[in-house]
Amino acid sequence: MLQTPNTFVRAPLPGMRNATAIVHIGPARGARFTQYTVEFESGGWLPPASDQRFAYVLEGEIQAGASTLAAGDYIYVPPSAQVDFSASAAARVTVIEKPYLPLPAVEPPDSFTGGASRLPAEPLLGSSALTVQTLIPAEPGFDFAINILTYQPGAALPMVEMHVMEHGLLMLAGGGIYRLSASWYPVQAGDFIWMAPYCPQWFGALGEQPARYIIYKDWNR
Asked: Which CATH class is domain 2-115?
């Protein structure tokens, strides 16, 4: 499923103050997670979640518990923590929430923060024109992964992928062509894509600037 900004519907979620949400995907569509973008106004507030939560700041600055997060920063909050988000000025944040799936004898993860600008960009599948930044540690306590992929102009995935994981993808910059199932779609910054398990998928970057997106997948379970 592809959503473009001209189709976004905005509505407050329960408990929100001076903020609205664009719910991109959730269980109502068959997903096993929920992803939405919060648009904060001055004095905006998002209450804690009952599920684990990951948030990435797209624009502006927010306060997440005791942490101040600027654009490109992110936070992971386990279901046991009570962390609210607030903003003193306009800000945009993409949020992912998912029921946590424990593993026997594996400790659940703790809260942590990070910044995309401080992460290394590693070549993906042997291509220096396609790099990945890993935002969630590859540890068994985590049941999902969040990555940022950057494609230089003309770079592309080396194959059409099909796999058991599902994806939530938000285009951050640039654009290109996405194959979803048997159809091909032009995509650009601001677009959102949900890919169900086993949906054939492929992306190639077009234009003069790099294409960049942040992507979720269920993992380690």
From this structure: mainly beta
Residue 212 CA to chain centroid, in angstroms?
12
CA distances to 83, 106, 109, 208 from 205, in Å: 37, 39, 35, 9
Model confidence pLDDT, tens digit, residues 21-74: 999 999 999 999 999 999 999 999 999 999 999 999 999 999 999 999 999 999
Alpha carbons 217 and 157: distance in angstroms, whole number? 17
Amino acid (one-letter) located at 207: G
The fold of 116-218 is Jelly Rolls (2.60.120)
**Strand order across the beta sheet in which 201-206 lies:** 183-188, 175-180, 201-206
Could you give the angle at the alpha carbon of 185 between the alpha carbons of 172 and 160, nearest 5°?
90
Give the number of other CB atoms < 10 A from CB of residue 6.
6
